[in-house]
Amino acid sequence: MSGSQPNPYGTFPQDSQSPNFAPQDSAKPKKKKRGFLKWGVGIVAVVVLFSAFTNNDDDDDAATTADSADTNKSVDLVAEAEAETEPDAAAGADANADTAAETPNSDAAGVDDNVSKEFQNALRSAERYLDFSSFSYQGLYDQLTSEYADAYPADAAQYAVDTVTVDWNEEALESAENYLEFSHFSYQGLYDQLTSEYGEQFTPEQAQYAVDTVDADWNAEAVEAAESYQELMPMSGTELLNQLTSDYGEKFTPEQAQHAVTAVGL
């Protein structure tokens, strides 16, 4: 990072100045006619006061020296910390620069500069379609080339479906889940819908994966179908059973259809 770093040790202490002590006037002993002894006592008192005053100045000098030493020590510690921090900051900046250099631009990911702009747009359209819904390989190609949709040239659409990153099995599974959320289907009916040229146009292998993997209760699907028929028109139990199992109807197994007929009370 550039710019000044906040000082981890706070504000440097300012140079301490020695307190100014105004020398106090020593009291002069008054001359009294008390004899030599009193003069001796006065001289001793003057000596004591002089010594005390001298010691006080020495203490102030010592305190000033100690404060200066502490200040110098703090400055040395801060200088040492900054010296240790600067290489780390420089190393971090170098690491960030290396990472930025190694990381490709996400907008440029998947874009081949060797193909035309229209090819690139077709690929982007394919990616957006797959983000929005489920498509088979053929279904996506038809969508890209349809005159009612994107109307890309055949070669651009072919490039897109061949280049786009996608798992077609998972697309088939997602499509199966969407169908079961929207309506009722039997196992065979869902498979036919996924492979139909009028439906999703998945390959047989992809559709098989979807119907084998999807989380579905086929008995419950049969009951839902039976209830829908009952709401649409009155039927006998036999007629409803035939409709549920017919190849032109729902294509449930006989066991699933019978379970449904019984469930609706016929």
TrEMBL record:
Pfam families: Lipoprotein_Ltp. InterPro entries: Ltp-like_HTH, WH-like_DNA-bd_sf. Residues 120-164, 167-214, 217-263 form the Putative host cell surface-exposed lipoprotein Ltp-like HTH region domain. This is Putative host cell surface-exposed lipoprotein Ltp-like HTH region domain-containing protein. Residues 1-31, 81-114 are annotated as: Disordered. The lineage of its organism: Bacteria, Bacillati, Actinomycetota, Actinomycetes, Mycobacteriales. It comes from the Bacteria. The chain crosses the membrane at residues 36-53. Keywords: Membrane, Transmembrane, Transmembrane helix. Residues 88-103 have a biased composition (Low complexity). Coiled coil: none annotated. Residues 1-23 have a biased composition (Polar residues). It comes from Corynebacterium stationis.
